């Protein structure tokens, strides 16, 4: 057959797929003028083309088709080459590349890097996408992938210019810790900042309530302060005093420390009937560390069991010496609830403030400290701050931590808008881009552009510090893993390389069937929590308590997310993904969120008192612990004689026993004790009294019994019948209160 005809027919044959069947159409010239389609079966050549088994008889057709197929394969190869990049190429490497960066440079995914590191001294469990690799490991991965490497040209890294914002001068000034001195000509008197410290429930908030003539304590959850309150109190004599009311609960130690760092005077409140307590001692230490003078307020002196003199003597042991004992600490006996001697306490505070000659510079750029921060649904991020220098006005651009603000509004402690805040005045600031942390320093800058420069620099410094810490942790883990790897290699040193590879494969083959990015530990013994609070200080206090958790061997505690504000859908998504529990402190969850949580089976636990939240968390930890099995003895018997019986071809040992305590119940479990050691646990195969099978043998009766396994008895053995009951375990974690 003509080869050109075959090629022509090949080009005219159309293969169409329909339900797995092929239909071939050919064309023939009819009447020398037109081309008409003909069914494949009507043309003998087409029938040959559609039946490969006939190609042997028509070698010319087979050869022609083979040539055509060969040409098509070349074209397909060219297309594939265009789509898939060459694997053999040069990879530009550099020192301290992360897993993610190396994968990107090689044109591979992260899983490829993990697979290349199998059977090496790298601990894959501690390896994350942002983990830094050693240079020798980088080279090994590239070579294993059939690629070449070349070192990147070293770029001279220019030292980044420090663009941070700083205070105007560097100096020191009595109480105003961290606030530098200014030109005496521009200094003006300012209100003293007074922090009220003391043990929980000793009457700190009630004292402040009486001074302000409001009902703060009645509004506090559980009657205890949950976060710092900053208030400006106007005295009858005309003086102004800024008071900070800090929590006395053990959980809020950081808040108390923060309060003393921005204060002039500390009023130490001690209950006359309780005396010096744990948080009283801690408050004294905070005041000493900050170098702040003390005024002692002995509260609840109206109670019959009150003993102010005992309080003064107890404080001597902590270097708090009252004036009547030759010291410099003023002591005032008060009753905050009845309002007794409050003016005497206020006068003592004003007198001490006059002695300190408290003045500040109300001009220039603003400086201050964040006392508390929170998120408000309508107003956005808010901060309670005390201005230490300059005068804060609307439109000022501030930086604090890694966020900034253009002041939109300012409010006093009663929620009333104010236009300006001079030094010593507490004010709530609205206009922050994000919530700064409590305790952050507030600095005014010239413009928004300057604020961005400051934030960029601080973010860069934090990233560098984090990278340094991460490298140290990774190096420590890799060093530990390298030692284990060398020990493993030494154990396999006597084997050939093939045998060694086979052993390693068996040990690690479970990793091959998992994508490295999907390797996760089972979360059955892990409690994942999402923490939401009303203000930054409350969240901080809860996290500080959770940091003391030291029972990882019982149940792991994983803090998935924390933040401020009401419970949101994002919190539910996280809880669903991690099978976690949401804990809210002084926040709300609206009806739609609660319904969605119920639908998804997510627990939302809301509390207003911190120790109740921690108790709830401990209950949740208890529920994650496996139940403990407790054995309760039902009866005891002694082996008096031994013999055996033949059942079929087997001899079964039998013990002749007498029950001397309780009863033996065949349905229960038994154990065999010999010389004080338990040598068997299980169930009985038979229990007889004389020749009768029985279920129960009571005290004082004899019996014969055999075990569910062939075990020889000895005279004097003890048989104990017991039942197992499951008891819920409780966590051994002690948060300290």
From TrEMBL:
Subcellular location: Mitochondrion
GO cellular component, one term: mitochondrion
Pfam entry (one): IF-2
InterPro entries in alphabetical order: EF-G-like_DII, IF2_II, P-loop_NTPase, Small_GTP-bd, T_Tr_GTP-bd_dom, TF_IF2_bacterial-like, TIF_IF2, TIF_IF2_dom3
Coiled coil location: 464-491
Single GO MF descriptor: translation initiation factor activity
Entry annotated with the keyword Transcription regulation: no
Keywords per UniProt: Coiled coil, GTP-binding, Initiation factor, Mitochondrion, Nucleotide-binding, Protein biosynthesis, Transit peptide
Domain named Tr-type G: residues: 189-359
Major subcellular site: mitochondrion
PANTHER family per UniProt: TRANSLATION INITIATION FACTOR IF-2, MITOCHONDRIAL, TRANSLATION INITIATION FACTOR IF-2-RELATED
Protein family per UniProt: Belongs to the TRAFAC class translation factor GTPase superfamily. Classic translation factor GTPase family. IF-2 subfamily.
Function, in words: One of the essential components for the initiation of protein synthesis. Protects formylmethionyl-tRNA from spontaneous hydrolysis and promotes its binding to the 30S ribosomal subunits. Also involved in the hydrolysis of GTP during the formation of the 70S ribosomal complex.
Protein name, as recorded: Translation initiation factor IF-2, mitochondrial
Gene name, Swiss-Prot/TrEMBL: Mtif2
